[in-house]
Design goal:
This protein has about 775 residues and is of the alpha/beta class. About 35% of the residues lie in helices and about 15% in strands. The protein has 26 helices and 28 strands. Strands 5-4-3-6-2-1-7-8-9-10-11-14-12-13 form a 14-stranded mixed sheet, sandwiched between helices. A 3-stranded parallel sheet has the order 18-17-19, with no helix packed on it.
C-alpha cells in the first residue's frame, strides 16, 4: 500500500500529467474549479459552515467526543507572509485516500448516495469554498501534509489551480501542536486532522467577524459534534474574537412510538472561560414517508423525511445580541420565522444557504408535514407533564405560533397548526384537571378568578357553577395565556354566568370576607361600568345593616323599583357612629347603611379604586355617601312627616350626642333643632313654629312643683316630654348621657325655660285655678 506521499505523487502524475505529457483538458479543469469556488456562495461565511458540515460528516473513533475548534493566529505558521492564519482542529479518524482524491476533483464526493445514512454535506465540493479567504489551504491528516494553490507557481509546470495537491514540509506538526496546546480548554490528544488557511489580507477582518458571530446553536442539530470552540491565539494583542466554547448533551430520551422520538438536549456556552448562557431544548423528531409527487432527482434515494422541532425551555442561548436561526438544514439558514420553535429538516437550499427553495416540491412536502409534527410534539409535551403542577402545563402554550410569520408558506403552517389543535383536547379545565377541546372550553375574567381563589384560601368552597352548568372553565394556570387561548378559539363565559356562579352555592357571597366582597364590587365596576346585564341587575349584591343590626341584601332592581336607598359614610371616623344611630333610630328612619366593616374595607382601597367604586355605586345603584350633618338634615325631613314620638325623641338625642361627641358643630345642630317637631308632656307632637315658649320637662323644672300640669298649653306654651331627659341604652358610655348634660341640651339647644325665666308679657294673662299646696306656696 502506498504511503501518503507516494499517493500524492501518483495523483499528480496520473491525473494531472505532472512530469509527463500535457493533458489537453487541463485548462478546462482549472476554469471549472475556479468558477465553482467563486460562485458557490455569496458570502465568505459559508466556508465556515462547510467546514463545520464536513466535521459533522466525518467518522470518529468509539469513545471519542467529536469536537471542532477554530483558532485564528497572527503567527505566520506557513511562512508565506500571511498576517493572520486560521487553523481548524478536528479529532476525526482522519482523511482516507478516497477523501484526498475527492478533494482533487470537481463534482466528485465520497458522500454521494449516503444521504440516507445521515451525511449532510458534499465533501470535496464544499471544501473548495475556502479559496474565498485563502490562496493556499493546507491539510494535515493521517500522514498527509499537502496544500492546494489557487494559482499554480509559474515554475511548477502545473497549469491547474484549486485541485492539484502539493506535498509540503512547512509548517511542521510541532508548530501546530504548540498553537493547539496554548489553549487551556483544548482537550485530549492532538487532533488527527488540521486545516491551515493563511488568510488573504483583505479577508482577515471579515473572517474574524464571522468567527466572532458563530452562534452556539450551530451544533443544535448535529448528531456527532458535541463541542465547538472558537478562539484567537493568545499571542495576539487585543483579540477581536472572544473565546467561545459550546457543548451539547442529551439529558433524556424517550421513544414515543414508531417513527418518532423525543429527548431533552442541553446546550451550554462559555466565553473567555466563563459561562455565557445555557438552555435546554425539548426535541421532537419524526419520520414522514416521502410522497411520490414530492420526489426530486437530488434526493431520489431518500424515502423518508426526518423533521426535528426544537422547543427552547429557557431563553435561547445567544452570542452578543444575536438569536440563532429559526430554520436549519442541518446547519443554520438566515431565515427568521417568528415562530417560537426551531425547524430542522433536509431542505434543498440555494448555493448561498441563506434561505430554502420555497417553491421546490421536495421542500413543499416537508413544509406540509410540519403541522402534524408540531401537534404530535405539543401533545407529547402536555402528556410529559402529567402529574406535574398545572403551571408546568401552561408553560407548553408558549410554543404556539401566535404571531403571524412574514413568509406566506409559514403562514399556512400556522393556520394548519391552529386548525388541528382546535380539535384536540389540549385545554386544562376546572376542576379535576381534565382536558377538553378549545371549542368547549370557556375562560373567565382573571379578576373574578382571583376572587374565587382568594375565597378558597379563606376556606370557602368553590361555587358549584364551576362544574355543574355544562360549561368547561379553563384552569387558572392558563389565565395569563390570553393570546394562546385566542389563537385556539377559546371563548369567554356569557355575562349571566357570573350571576349563576355567585348564586350556585348558598351562603358563598355572604361568607366572603369584607375585603373580598369589596373586591367583588370593584370587579363589577371594572367590567360593567356602564351597561349592566339584566341577570346581574337581579343579583342581591349590595348589603346593608338592618334595624336588628343584622345584614340585608338588595339588588339593582330593588334599588330602582322599591325606592330603597343605601348609604355609606363620607368620613372613616363617622362609619361606626352612623351605624350605631341607624340601629337606634330603627325602621322609622327608612335608612340603610352599608355594614361598618364593609365601609372600612372600602376605605382600604387605593384612592383611584375607591373613587371609581363610589362613583359607580352612586350612578348605578343610587348608593351615596352621607356625613353626620347631611344625615341629620335627612332625619329632620323625616321627622317633620313622622307621627312617632319615640322617633322624634331619638332624632333630638342624635343631634345632641353628635354635637357633644364632635360629629357636628354648634351652628349645625342649632339650625337642625330650630325646625325639629317637639313632643310635649302629654305625648303630643307639636310643630316648633307653633310654640310661643317651651317649658323644660316637669322633672327638671320648678313650675310643676307649684302648679302640676301645664295650665298654659292653650296659649302655646309647651311643656316638653320628660323622655328628652332619658338617654337610650344605645348612648351608654357616650359623652352627654348624664342628666345635667341632657338638661343643658334641652335648655340651650331646644330653647326650653322654667317659669321664673318666662317673660312677664307672656305671664300677665295667666291665672291659676288650682289650690296652692304648702310646698308649692313655700317654693313660690
Amino acid at each position: 500500500m502506498a504511503t501518503p506521499r507516494e499517493h500524492i505523487e501518483e495523483i499528480r502524475r496520473n491525473k494531472f500529467s505532472i512530469g509527463g505529457e500535457e493533458n489537453p483538458l487541463t485548462e478546462d479543469l482549472h476554469h471549472a474549479a475556479r468558477n465553482l469556488s467563486a460562485e458557490l456562495y455569496t458570502k465568505d461565511v459559508h466556508f465556515l459552515m462547510e467546514l463545520i458540515q464536513n466535521a459533522e460528516d466525518n467518522e470518529y473513533e468509539p469513545g471519542v467526543e467529536p469536537s471542532l475548534e477554530f483558532v485564528v493566529t497572527s503567527r505566520d505558521v506557513t511562512g508565506v507572509g500571511a498576517s493572520a492564519t486560521l487553523l481548524v482542529f478536528n479529532n476525526e479518524k482522519g482523511f482516507t485516500p478516497r477523501n484526498i482524491e475527492s478533494l482533487c476533483s470537481v463534482g466528485r464526493s465520497t458522500k454521494k448516495g449516503k444521504r440516507q445514512g445521515g451525511y449532510i454535506g458534499e465533501k470535496g465540493i464544499g471544501f473548495k469554498s475556502v479559496f474565498l479567504v485563502t490562496n493556499q489551504p493546507y491539510i494535515f491528516s493521517n500522514g498527509y501534509k499537502i496544500r492546494f494553490n489557487e494559482i499554480p507557481p509559474s515554475d511548477s509546470g502545473v497549469k491547474i489551480g484549486y485541485i492539484v495537491p502539493e506535498w509540503i514540509d512547512k509548517p511542521n506538526i510541532e508548530d501546530l501542536k504548540r498553537i493547539y496546546s496554548s489553549n487551556s480548554q483544548s482537550q485530549g490528544e492532538f487532533p488527527s486532522t488540521v486545516i491551515v488557511l493563511p488568510l488573504r489580507p483583505e479577508k482577515v477582518e471579515g473572517v474574524k467577524d464571522q468567527l466572532a458571530n458563530i452562534h452556539p446553536e450551530v451544533i443544535l442539530f448535529m448528531s456527532k459534534i458535541k463541542r465547538l470552540s472558537v478562539r484567537e491565539d493568545g499571542q495576539n494583542q487585543n483579540p477581536r474574537v472572544n473565546a467561545v466554547s459550546v457543548s451539547q448533551e442529551i439529558a433524556f430520551q424517550n421513544v414515543k412510538k414508531e417513527g418518532s422520538e423525543s429527548f431533552i438536549l442541553h446546550l451550554s456556552a462559555e466565553e473567555n472561560g466563563e459561562p455565557n448562557g445555557e438552555c435546554s431544548y425539548y426535541m421532537w423528531r419524526q419520520r414522514f414517508p416521502v410522497k411520490t409527487n414530492n420526489r426530486v432527482e437530488e434526493r431520489k434515494d431518500i424515502d423518508n423525511w426526518v423533521i426535528t422541532l426544537a422547543f427552547p425551555r429557557e431563553d435561547r442561548v445567544t452570542r452578543g445580541n444575536r438569536v440563532g436561526a429559526d430554520i436549519y438544514a442541518f446547519l443554520p439558514t438566515e431565515i427568521v420565522t417568528g415562530l417560537p420553535f426551531i425547524i430542522q429538516a433536509d431542505f434543498l437550499l440555494p448555493s448561498s444557504r441563506e434561505s430554502i427553495l420555497w417553491d421546490n416540491k421536495w421542500n413543499q412536502g416537508i413544509l406540509d408535514c410540519i403541522p402534524s409534527a408540531f401537534c404530535e410534539a405539543f401533545l407529547s409535551l402536555l402528556n410529559s407533564v402529567t402529574g406535574a403542577p398545572p403551571s408546568a402545563r401552561s408553560y407548553c402554550f408558549r410554543y404556539l405560533p401566535i404571531s403571524i410569520p412574514s413568509y406566506l408558506q409559514l403562514r399556512r403552517i400556522r393556520e394548519d397548526i391552529q386548525a388541528k389543535l382546535k380539535t384536540e383536547e389540549v385545554i386544562l379545565c376546572e376542576p379535576g384537571n381534565a382536558y377538553c377541546t378549545p371549542i368547549r372550553a370557556r375562560k373567565i375574567v382573571a379578576g373574578f378568578r382571583k376572587i374565587l381563589e382568594a375565597a378558597t384560601g379563606e376556606g370557602l368552597e368553590k361555587p358549584s357553577a364551576l362544574w355543574s352548568t355544562g360549561v368547561f372553565i379553563i384552569h387558572s394556570c392558563l389565565d395569563d395565556n390570553s393570546s394562546s387561548l385566542e389563537f385556539l378559539g377559546v371563548g369567554s363565559v356569557p355575562d349571566d354566568w357570573y350571576s349563576t356562579c355567585i348564586r350556585s352555592t348558598p351562603g358563598w357571597l355572604a361568607n366572603l370576607s369584607q375585603d373580598l366582597y369589596v373586591q367583588l364590587l370593584c370587579f363589577f365596576v371594572e367590567h360593567w361600568n356602564s351597561e349592566i346585564p339584566s341577570s346581574l341587575q337581579q343579583l342581591p349584591i349590595f348589603k346593608y345593616g338592618n334595624s336588628s343590626y343584622g345584614v340585608g341584601w338588595a339588588s339593582l332592581l330593588d334599588m330602582s323599583s322599591k325606592g330603597s336607598k343605601i348609604y355609606f359614610s363620607s368620613e372613616e371616623r363617622e362609619i361606626a357612629w352612623l351605624a350605631r344611630w341607624n340601629k337606634e333610630l330603627g325602621n322609622a328612619a327608612h335608612y340603610k347603611f352599608m355594614p361598618n366593616a364593609t365601609q372600612v374595607a372600602m376605605k382600604n382601597l387605593s384612592p383611584y379604586e375607591r373613587s371609581r367604586l363610589q362613583e359607580w355605586l352612586d350612578r348605578c345603584a343610587k348608593i351615596t355617601q352621607l356625613s353626620v350633618t347631611s344625615f341629620g338634615r335627612q332625619l329632620l325631613d323625616e321627622a317633620k312627616a313622622s307621627t312617632s314620638k319615640e322617633f322624634l325623641i331619638r332624632v333630638a338625642h342624635f343631634f345632641h350626642f353628635s354635637y357633644v361627641n364632635d360629629y357636628m358643630d354648634s351652628a349645625q345642630m342649632l339650625t337642625l333643632c330650630k325646625e325639629l317637631p317637639l313632643v310635649n308632656s302629654s305625648g303630643s307632637i307639636i310643630l316648633a313654629s307653633s310654640c310661643k315658649a317651651k317649658l323644660v320637662p316637669a322633672s327638671m323644672g320648678e313650675w310643676h312643683k307649684l302648679i302640676g300640669d301645664n295650665p298654659w298649653a292653650a296659649q302655646g306654651i309647651v311643656a316638653l316630654s320628660s323622655a328628652y331627659m332619658k338617654a337610650n341604652a344605645n348612648a351608654s358610655g357616650l359623652r352627654g348621657e348624664r342628666e345635667d348634660e341632657l338638661d343643658l341640651f334641652v335648655r340651650n339647644k331646644l330653647g326650653a325655660v322654667d317659669i321664673p325665666t318666662l317673660k312677664p308679657l307672656m305671664l300677665h294673662c295667666l291665672h291659676f285655678s288650682l289650690p296652692l299646696q304648702k310646698i308649692k306656696l313655700f317654693c313660690f
